[in-house]
Amino acid sequence: MAVADTIGRAILARAARIIPSTSTPIPPHLAAVHAHRVLARITVGATPSDITLTWRATPVLEPGRFEAERAQRVATARTLVLGDPLRARQLLHASLTGIDPATAPADAVHAEAAILLAELQLRLGHPADAITWATYARASTVHLHGLAHRRALHALHVLAAAHSRGGHHQRAYHLYRELTGHLSKSDGPHAQQTLAVQAATALILYALGHCQAARTLLADTITTHRREHPGHPATAHMTRHLSRIWRECATNGHQHQDA
Length: 259
What we know:
InterPro entries: TPR-like_helical_dom_sf (IPR011990). This is Tetratricopeptide repeat protein. This protein has twelve helices and two strands; from the N terminus they run αααββααααααααα. The protein is mainly α. The protein has three domains: 1-63, no CATH class; 64-167, Serine Threonine Protein Phosphatase 5, Tetratricopeptide repeat (Alpha Horseshoe); 168-259. Strand 1 and strand 2 form a beta hairpin.
């Protein structure tokens, strides 16, 4: 478990009273934002689970009203992203008021708002805005938690998808390759998410005009996915993409060695 999540869970278990009340549960990584108020020292050993917390005798005063309000907006927006995305986007914009994603320092609440906003903007058809906020979210989470943290990888995934949707295929290709490398190490090369990202990389190769390389990579990914995850619906989804590539290659009269 990551250090921030470990600290946040400890605060929720022992000192939840210091966190401003909200209508929705506060996730551990946001609870960890209040660590300076209740912890005098944090000592981390060789692994994130090897951690010693030294508690303050008396918590410091509660955070300012603005800090509490922005955390509340982010928590509320998370509950609205599926049912009322436009309202969620409004709340996220409000929580990021005055924040320049190009220069803002790393901040857990801002990073949470930024990745939610990036995902929303991508869904609503605004890839340029999604790229801006996903770039900040990734830089912030990497600074706070490290390159391989799940939140940093999630931000990297959103960033790659935003560049792909925006037509920046070369950039998307490099981001997807980077993500595949991280997932291969953390989840394994045959994990479902690793293979899904590998399939997305194949589609980017096709968009770049590398038809044969795309077909080979996607076909190999389908074979591995079918073997490692029998019955998973993603196999059929990948197969439809491969069939589409074959049809388009035939329509365009492409001649490949594997044809």
